[in-house]
Give the backbone structure.
Amino acid sequence: MLKLTNVTKQFGNHTAVDHLSLEIPEKEMYGFLGGNGAGKTTTFRMILGLLDSTTGDISWNGQSIHYDKSHLIGYLPEERGLYPKLTVKEQIVYLGKLRGMKKAEIIKELNSWLDRFKVPEYLNKKVEELSKGNQQKIQFISAVIHQPKLLILDEPFSGLDPVNVEMLKEAVVDLKEYGTSIVFSSHRMEHVEELCEHLCILQKGKQVVQGSLQDIKRSYGKKNLIVHAAFPLEFLERLPGVVGFRKTTEGCRLEIENEDVSQLVFQELQNKGFIRKFELEEPSLNDIFIAKVGASYE
Amino acid sequence: MNKFWIILGHTFMTRIKTKSFIISTVITLLLIVGLVNIQSIIETFSSKEDDEVAVIDYSNELYDPLSQSMNQSSEEVKLSEYDGSEEEAKQAVKDETYQALIVLDMNEQQLPEAIYYANNISEIGNQAAIQQHIQQLKVTYATTQADIDTETLANINAPVQFETVALDKSAKTSDELNQARGIVYIMLFLLYMAVITYGNMIATDVATEKSSRVMEILVSSASPVTHMFAKIIGTAFVGLTQISLFLIVGYTLITTKQDELTEGIFSTFGIGDTSVSVYIYAIVFFILGYLLYATLAAMLGSLVSRIEDVQQLIMPMIFLVMIAFFIAIFGLSVPESNLVKITSFIPFFAPMIMFLRVGMLDIPVWEIALSIGILVATITLLAIVGARVYKGGVLMYGKSNSLKDFKKALALSKKE
């Protein structure tokens, strides 16, 4: 278990991370959400020991993380970088060795990864000859080649086409099944929603929301109500308990305070005409994110 | 420690395999081969014919003794008596049949005099040689007229005996000094080249890793300090490989050439019987000097985010080396000056200048020890600060590069 207790990082007068406390369970996927400059990368760098926290404590299974554990840890930085002049093989062999692997082992693993990503012909190509998306696959391989126990992925899916995103997602899920604890950051809500059991939302270094996905949604309370009907629906906006109203092409989408409000709306709609759709929906992470982060921007 | 060797090996192998390294090594090797064979090359291109100078002798007695003394001293000038008139002879010089014309005669005191005609009188060599021989001839005539016998003449001409003796027993004799000057000069030059070449290499290497953003992965798997020193030592091995390649090729070539050349070159540089301690000091100061500047270079390299900025940032470092080198060259002729003495204790100058003093003078051991101590302390300090800056610097990206960045990098790496 990775545990952050009251971690703060200050750069001069600027507080990048402010009293962050987290528990990231073993063998799970943990999502970090936050806008630009929210402190995600700084937090990762502190977990990896690249930066020292100003105050607070970070421990992994009760121990602090040092370079003697680097063979257990994988890291995919947000700023992708590989040696442009080296071939994929030279590259991964060097980085793999630094993670404590033997050359033969690395080449075996590398070949199976390249096969999996359907690019076995890249083995002896120079990195600068590859497209950006393919470089990213190589970068991903470099982060996971040593089968780490803890994998930190900073924006792993940015800049990839949908096919490659799927491919990488599958790989990440497999790693989790295999027993790797994965922490990843994204500003794509659907990825986090799809992959993570637990998550936290950071805003200006402070954690705004934290916990399991289900709990977060439940405690958020508000739900969405989708109504498609053949008559004007604007009057619904004025009903008590309705906090949001958005017109759509076929009807409208309401944000309501709690489930009970839907009953009231249902009664109001009766005898007004033909209703094609009436659906109560869980709030999306996107709604929660915008509500939590967007609110304090105002 | 294992990671240290992995990074070191990587630094070494990738550098050795680069085109620029191979090309520069090959060019330098060609240069060495050329230098060793320079004599044969010059001989191939220069004509072997002696220059012929026409002589018209109105006195009818000067030509024979002059050409005799010229032949004896094996000058490259050939004299030949001209039979025609002076005008014809001048025309012949203009037509380049002859290189020059000398008109010899006796003046009123019955002493020789001469006029030298040539198309241009810039070729000082021949002119001076002929003038000297005629001067001798004149002395002979004058002394014969004055009735001075040859023995007295020999006494007058003999050089005065002037011997230099150092009273301090351990001071170096002038012979030893000359030898020391050679080895000091070689060491100064090697260190100067090494610091500039390999310092630049380290800074560029670090900046390349940073600009390609591979650095963040590297420092997440090995500590920045390990990384920095593996780079420094790895590059040192690159340098060692290159320099030993040059030395081996140069040495083999020189020894297979004729003996005179070997002796000539070795005695010029005083290699042969310089004391062993000087060589040991040379190695010690070389290593210390390299480490000092390499650490500085690695630190500076970690501060820039684009390779183009490297040159700008290591400029001050290059200036430091240059100043040290020039003070040292100046010190070769005046090793006892105060400037040399003081600068031999200033860290960035010490490796060159203290070695100069060790080689040229006899200085107390405590001064050497103090200088080495100062160097070691500075290197340690620089390594500590450098590692801190490196740790922060490698994560820092931005446009500017200045002292501000240095402070920022330090702040980034420390707990607030």
In short: Chain A has two domains: 2-217, 222-282. Residues 222-282 of chain A form one domain.
